[in-house]
Amino acid sequence: MRTHTSRLTAVLALAAAAAVPLPAAAASAESSTAGDYPVNWDTVSAITTGTPLDLAPPGANRQDCRPSAEHPHPVVLVHGLLSNQRSTWQALAPTLANEGYCVYTFTYGKTWYSGTIGGVGDLNESAKQMKAFVDKVQQWSGADKVDVVGHSEGGNLPRLYIKQEGGASEVNSYVSLAGVNMGPPSLSGIITVAKQIPGAMEVIGHASPAIGQLTDPAYFESLNKPTATYPGIDYTAIATTHDEAVTPYELALLPQAPNVRNITIQTQCPNDPVGHIGLTYDKTAVTDVLNALDPAHPRPVPCDSGFPL
User: N or C: which end of the chain has fewer CB within 10 A?
Assistant: First the structure.
């Protein structure tokens, strides 16, 4: 049985291999009709096919989409560290579009050396990029507020946008999947080891300012004080006990409050082996997202025993 660290290393290797530059490709026109977008549940193929292109996943970024009465808030999906919109959201974006949501994705935090990979740059600058993108979504859709769903670093970034960039008045619901919420994760010991090497963290911080911030206790102290959550926003934080990056996994949860719901996948499905990277392709987690976005119409949560990444 593979360890958490070997699982994470294997998938990061796949992402690196997939990041070999390819010729630019134009996004194909997609119908705005709900119910006909292909859903990819395979984490590995999503990473290997999605990382090189950085295109919107199926069903996303339809500028002609208008929110319905059933789903009045557009959904903005926010990818995680060393990822992009297409490698992260090939399951959730088309699932939401097939359910009749207006769905939007973007890639933030690119640097001059990161190619199609985002989530690398300074989080404060990425929060500004998110603000600009949400403004576009509101313009396209005509909606005053959006729902946001983020994975990993993408669970952290919307909270910075809410605090610093006016998002408190623009977000209806917030959902995180293994979000880096309450403190620096150990990243399965990788950062812990680096801290023992003189100068290593400085090198990492220069290569990726986001990693430097997400491993800095002062960043989280600033983000979470005086409050980690804001009234008027419904929060759902989803975690997995098999997380190989946000460790301990409880860091993905939020402080208890009337407008906060914390979900641990294995409380629902003890045998679900899903880890950090695979959470956006886990049918249990995706159903939890659907229920968080539409709590008035909850659906049974299936137990996914798929590939445990």
Answer: N
